[in-house]
Structure formats: C-alpha cells, structure tokens
Design goal:
alpha+beta; 4-stranded antiparallel sheet; 5 helices; 20% strand; elongated
Length: 152
C-alpha cells in the first residue's frame, strides 16, 4: 500500500494515541473527520492497521517474573516447528512466540507470579513441549524501552 503525506500524518498521531476520537485525530492530523475515517478504513482493509490493544502491566497484576527462553528444536523431525508452536500456544503464561533463523529456532516470552510459579511452569509445561534439543533461559531484569512508535 502506498502512503502519502496525509496518511503518514494520520498514522503519526494515531500511533501516539490510538484512543483519540475521530474528530480529535482528524484535527491533529490536519484533515476533516470524514477524510480521516476514510483513510483509516482503507489502511485497516489493506492490513496496515491490525487493531488496538491494551498494554497491561503484568507486574501490577502480580506477575513479577519474566523470562525469555531461547529454544533450539530437533531439525531432523519433520514438522517439529509446527508441533512445538501449537503446543506452546496452549500455555497461558507464554505471552509471545518468535521464530528465528540461526542456531536458536524460537523464543518464548514467559511470565510467572514468582520463581516458584515459574519453576512449576518450566517443569510441567515448557519441558513437556515436543522436539526441544536445547533451552537457554534469560531472566528479565529491567525493561529499558518498549516503544513501538515508528518514525513516520
């Protein structure tokens, strides 16, 4: 999809505050509300906008432990990746699954209430995932930057 300057102005404002009402967003972007709505609809239909979501502070809800697990899979097994990801998606504490090219095949972002809870998840859910040949756990210490705003 080709974006012009007007689209970029709308997106620039929208990504900073997706909760803005259509009139406020249009005003900040320097367009009419009808133009803003039409362009947002066009971008959504083209798949550029994938929706709004809440950003939840997991620590405030009692999940104080976050671990990244770098996982290598058994590449000699056909469909190992598909079987692994299907099973990993079923674990509620797995927030994110990423795939990679290289020595590490996938990364899981896992949250837990505390270390005892994490150990339970690790032993009963993570270690039972199929086709794992290696796991490296990286404990999150601090979140330095989480901004997903692009320079449009």
């Amino acid at each position: 999809m080709h974006l012009d300057d007007t689209d970029r102005r709308i997106l620039r404002q929208y990504q900073h505050d997706p909760t803005l009402g259509p009139a406020d967003l249009a005003e900040l972007a320097g367009v009419t509300p009808a133009t803003c709505a039409r362009r947002l609809d066009r971008m959504a239909q083209a798949g550029l906008l994938r929706g709004n979501h809440a950003v939840i502070d997991w620590a405030a809800l009692g999940y104080s432990v976050e671990v990244s697990l770098r996982i290598t899979l058994d590449k000699t097994v056909p469909n190992a990746f598909d079987a692994f990801t299907e099973a990993a998606r079923a674990i509620p504490e797995v927030l994110e699954i990423q795939s990679f090219l290289g020595r590490v095949d996938t990364r899981l972002s896992v949250i837990a209430r505390d270390m005892a809870h994490y150990q339970e998840i690790y032993r009963t859910a993570i270690l039972t995932l199929p086709h794992i040949t290696d796991i490296e756990a990286l404990m999150h210490v601090a979140r330095i930057k989480t901004d997903e705003v692009l320079p449009l």
